[in-house]
Amino acid sequence: MKTILRGLKTVLIGLLLAGCALQPAAQAPSAPKLIVFMVVDGLPQHQVVDYRDQLAPDGLRRFLDRGAWFSEAHYGHAFTVTAAGHAAMLTGAYPHRTGIIGNEWRDPATGELEYCTGDTAHTYIGHRTAKFDGTSPRNLKVETVGDVLKRMSPASKVIAISGKDRGAILPAGKTGTAYMYMSETGQFASSTYYMREHPAWVKDFHATRPADRYFHADWKPLLAEAAYSRSLPDNQKWYARGGSLPRKLGEGMDQPGPLFYATLLASPYGDALTLDFARAAIRGEQLGADDAPDILSVSLSTHDYVNHAYGAESRLSHDHLLQLDRLLQAFFRDLDATVGKDSYVLVLTADHGFMPVPEYSRTQGHDSGRLNGSQALARMNQGLAGQFGAGSWVKYISGRSFILDRKLAAERAVDLATLTEATRRLALAEPGILVAYTHAELESGSRKGQPYFEAMQKAWNRELSGDVDFALKPYWLIGSGTTGTTHGSPHRYDTHVPILFYGPAWVRPGRVDARVEEVDIAPTLSRMLGIPAPSAAEGKPLPLP
Ligand SMILES: [Zn+2]
To answer: What is the pLDDT of residues 240-297, one digit of tens each?
Structure first.
């Protein structure tokens, strides 16, 4: 009986489609009412599939079982950090075009520190604003899908939410609205760039002090111990603070305060709170309620903090992924109920992957280590002193650039090109540095075809980058710490990220193994929305199944 019904259904759909074919407008489905763009900060693609058997039926598996997913999606730029990734996603462009070359960088001419979303002309609403807090997209040089959408469809709304200011501001583009978590109060705030006062729904959300609900909450492993046999046990000597579960939030504190609110973001409850705020935004802004398509971007920050502290190979990270998966399932089901199953398209990606902890990599037989940046600078300056006389010739490491003291070079009549080339050679002598190219080489493209050159060109910007750019060897990081790990390389563990789509009316299910790029997402969404791709986009629409 079921088969007959299904057969009948197919015939009916066939007849309907044949009828529709007479009207050209019906060839493409109309635009989704809402695009829900989810980012998991610091999620390597392998973590999505490693625990597939332990995922909930309707969290990440919604994409794997019933959506479209790309098994070889990569970033193409070399310095894979949060701001650079978040700027690329909805602009479809890498840092050489977006101008967001890192989370922070130094002006190569003045040495002045610049924060990716810093803008002293603006302040947080109802909150203290520190010098390097992110308050506007001033440094973002290009438009996003949302900017184009709002230009073409003024009734459309673009809202971006994140635990981190850069995770909200960069996807929001120039004309969307960003809300970010304030770790002093446990609230989400926007800035004066976007508005003078929060709308009522934001005030209502905070009136019940939702962050305080998680005070003294326990983070307990979700599954029985045996489920974690494929990840590294707690309390490895290279773990940062508190490397074990269970853990009580706000342990030893009498009441919620800034320390509690700050640590909340490093537990699954940080993402839970962010998703609660996203639900409030959907209701408050009536996202997906009318025919003008809206975009909601939600960047979940916690996984990045967990992976920094313990590595993606840890049981803590494994458990965090499972916790996140359950939060996503609840959120997706709420979307079905509030926005409507066939009204929205869901996308999930990450801003970068993660490098295993160097000390762990060593146990796996890899050449790995930690390069101390200030020690590297001291050694390089010693080397340069032999050639050019005593002095701090290399002043700063800015992102993955060395910045030279051009003033000193001018004073001592040292040829800048000679000094730059000597710096490049000394950089290559540093333990952990794999390749180094000069500003002139990156600008002219003269080393095209050499290892990582093109990825480094995409990460490089003429006005913002320094004199010599470098990339680290695999399994090496740069930093003064002795625990945990990071990301920021052109290597597979950092570039390989999930790109997952779900939305039955627009996306056929299936796995695509062709290599695709993160910058392909923006033109794909533009096509779904029926609008031109952002003007600086360098990707092409994804080969959806
Ligand atoms: Zn990070």
So the answer is: 988 999 999 999 999 999 999 999 999 999 999 999 999 999 999 999 999 999 999 9
Q: For residue 488, how far is its CA from the centre of ligand 1 (angstroms)?
A: 8
Cα–ligand 1 centroid distance for 74 (angstroms):
17
CA distance 71 to 73: 6
Find the 305 Cα to ligand 1 centroid distance in Å.
7
**Ligand 1 centroid vs 267 CA: distance in angstroms?**
15
User: What residues make up the domain containing 235?
Assistant: 34-357+490-529
Q: What is the 520 CA–ligand 1 centroid distance (Å)?
A: 22
List the CATH number of the domain containing 432. 3.30.1360.150
CA 42, CA 349: separation in Å to the nearest integer? 10
Asked if 26 and 17 touch (Cβ cutoff 8 Å), the reply is no
pLDDT digits (tens, 9 = 90+) for 502-540: 999 999 999 999 999 999 999 999 999 999 999 999 999
Query: How far apart are the CA of 364 and the centre of ligand 1, in A?
Result: 23
| CATH code for the domain in which residue 266 is found | 3.40.720.10
Is 459 within 8 Å of 400 (Cβ atoms)? yes
Q: How many domains does the chain have?
A: 2
Given 453, 478, 503, the domain boundary residue is 478
The encoded tokens of residue 329 equal 């399932």
Who surrounds ion ligand 1 at CB < 5 A?
304
Neighbours of 341 (CB within 10 A): 11
